[in-house]
Amino acid sequence: MKDKTNRPKSLAARRTMRPGLFSFHLTGWLLVLTCFIPRLAANPLRIYIVTDLEGASGVYKFAQTREARNPLGEKAKEYLMGDIAAVVRGLRAANVSEIVVLDGHGSQAFVPHLMEPGAKYITGKPRPGPLTCLDESFDGLIQLGAHAMMGTPDGVLAHTQSSRTENRYWYNGVESGELAQCAAIAGYHGIPPIMVTGDEATCREATKFFGSNCVTVAVKRGITREAAMLYPFDETRQALYEGARRAVAAIPRCQPYKLSLPIQAKKEYLVFDSSSRLKTSEYF
Q1: Low-confidence residues of the chain, pLDDT below 50?
Q2: What are the strands of the beta sheet with 265-272, ordered from one edge?
Q3: Dihedral angle of Cα 105, 109, 112, 118, to the nearest 10 degrees
Q4: Predicted TM-score (pTM) of this structure
Q5: I want to staple 46 with a disulfide (CB 3.0 to 4.6 A). Which of 74, 98, 115, 180 is the partner?
Q6: How far is CA 29 from CA 25, 38, 251, 284, in A?
Q7: Chain-centre distance of CA 89, in angstroms?
Q8: What is the pLDDT, as a whole number, of residue 284?
């Protein structure tokens, strides 16, 4: 009869006889995870949002955007805050750690008591620089409530910087609106545009300048400069929420928008006198 005492032990038996080996492997994996988790926590996602009013849901005429403290304008600000809230919620759902929202409308458009929790909001003037507090620590730029450049036929409230003097700008021979202007500043810091919201013309312009990886969300469709096909708020806010989540996922595929140096700039604008409007150009 064979001696059963010399048979190889089963895996379970070996673990029973050598518990220290199993404990070592478990402890080793825990150490690996312990080293990995702080590295993730040390690099939280930071997103910078610059807003405008003309591209918000429900906004389609200059009477809603130009004069401060008028009933139409105050209601339009509420529309904007609803759009911001949807995007902030989407970013938070995508595990963004820090969100900074800049009031980019000339006459300012934030309503403090309607600010969505989970973000920090910058408003008021004067302030340093066009995109205050933006630096290379941010992972992506979102332009929310944006509008198409001056001269866009189907762009709702289309203009560049000033709708009253009908400014137009060219950089290195390419006519550019506020989308490209903001993105170029972010590009200086190496930050890619990851999302643009506004009317369909604005979204088309964003794709032209930033490529198809930049997420676009259209909240209305322009017919003329002050006429639009509006979409229900429930639908636009859901689209904005989902778009924000997709924008975070798109960050690795988005590239900063940069202008080649030296930059050749041209500005064209109207000068008003008592009898006529004169078109003037400046080169920089």
Answers
A1: 1-24, 26-42
A2: 174-176, 168-171, 265-272, 277-283
A3: -50
A4: 0.83
A5: 98
A6: 6, 15, 30, 60
A7: 13
A8: 67
